[in-house]
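Incident log, structure service

09:12 report received: a user says their structure output differs between two submissions of the same chain.
09:20 pulled the input from the user's history:
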Amino acid sequence: MYPLYEQARSQDKIANTIVQSASTQFIDSARTKGYITPQMWNDFNSQLSATGNQYDVKLEHLHKLTSPNYSDPADPATFKGDFTTYYTAYYNDQIMPVMFPNNVLPTDDSSRRYTMQVGDYIGINLTNINRTAATQLWDFLMNDNTQQTASVLMNYKGMVLNENY
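09:34 re-ran on a clean worker, output below:
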């Protein structure tokens, strides 16, 4: 039974490698281009589906904003000479409707691109939501029920480097 568990654990390691490679490629491509297209998203999901696992994929886009600092906000002459930088966060609920609107536009239509700006951050948080064979076999061998589903995890984030649109 233990050799079967080791084989299943090896399968989890391979899935981790595939997920890491696909996620890195997807985010790095988005960082370099400055946008995400439906085709990029579909290709990424096709790579994930090759692992045989189901995933909860969370995108996070942090849009960089700057605001000048004034001692009296009503008087432009009181500018202090510096700025405050802050980020507005966008997640799947805001990103997916841009790429997959309720219309019949082709997937390569430019209005379906989710665009970002240089200095923004784009990241992904990915976790499997199914119990892998290795988790199930471990529970069987240990006469346990860990309720653990997350054996494939990936977090990756980076700064947008280009606006190629």
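09:41 both user submissions now match this output. Likely a transient worker issue. Closing.
09:42 reviewer note: The chain has four helices and six strands. The first strand starts at residue 35 and ends at 36.
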